[in-house]
C-alpha cells in the first residue's frame, strides 16, 4: 500500500465507535479523497506499521490502549524488540487506542476527533510550490 499525497488515509479498528464516526466526518473536511481502512478487514504489514510510526515519530507502544484487558494480559510486563512491537501491532490492531490519519506525508493519532484537523493546518503551511510555479532566479 502506498500513501497518495492527495488522499487522506484513515486507519481504525472500530469504525462504528463514536470517535470513529466523528473522526470520519472531520476527515471529509480535510480532504475530498478519504480512504478508510478498517483493521478488522485489512492487515497491515510490519513495514507499513514502521512507516506510519516514522511519520508519527513515536514508538509502537505509544499507539496501544494500555487499559485494554487484553493488553494487560498479553503485552504488559513483556520486553519486545522493535520487530516484536511491530508484530504486536500487526496481530492485535484492536489494541489501538485511537484512529490514525495519514495525509500529505504526515500522520496524527486522533485521540479526539478534531485532532485530524492538525493535518489540514500542517499541509497548508508546508505545501511546496511546484517547479513550474517557482519564481525564476536570473543571475
Automatic annotation (TrEMBL):
| InterPro entries xref list | Arsenate_reductase-like, Thioredoxin-like_sf
Name under which the protein is recorded? Glutaredoxin
* Source organism (scientific name): Fulvivirga marina
Extract the coiled-coil ranges from the record: none
Report the sequence similarity comment from the record: Belongs to the ArsC family.
Q: What Gene3D superfamilies does the entry give?
A: Glutaredoxin (3.40.30.10)
Q: A Pfam family for this UniProt protein?
A: ArsC
Amino acid at each position: 500500500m502506498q500513501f497518495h499525497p492527495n488522499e487522506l488515509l484513515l486507519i481504525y479498528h472500530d469504525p462504528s465507535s463514536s470517535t470513529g464516526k466523528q473522526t470520519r466526518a472531520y476527515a471529509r473536511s480535510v480532504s475530498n479523497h478519504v480512504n478508510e481502512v478498517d483493521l478488522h478487514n485489512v492487515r497491515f504489514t510490519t513495514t507499513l506499521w514502521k512507516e506510519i510510526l516514522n511519520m508519527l515519530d513515536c514508538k509502537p507502544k505509544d499507539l496501544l490502549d494500555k487499559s485494554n484487558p487484553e493488553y494487560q494480559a498479553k503485552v504488559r510486563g513483556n520486553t519486545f524488540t522493535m520487530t516484536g512491537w511491530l508484530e504486536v501491532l500487526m496481530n492485535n490492531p484492536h489494541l489501538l487506542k485511537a484512529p490514525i490519519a495519514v495525509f500529505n506525508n504526515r500522520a496524527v493519532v486522533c485521540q479526539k476527533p478534531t485532532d485530524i484537523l492538525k493535518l489540514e493546518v500542517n499541509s497548508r503551511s508546508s505545501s511546496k510550490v511546484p517547479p513550474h510555479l517557482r519564481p525564476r532566479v536570473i543571475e
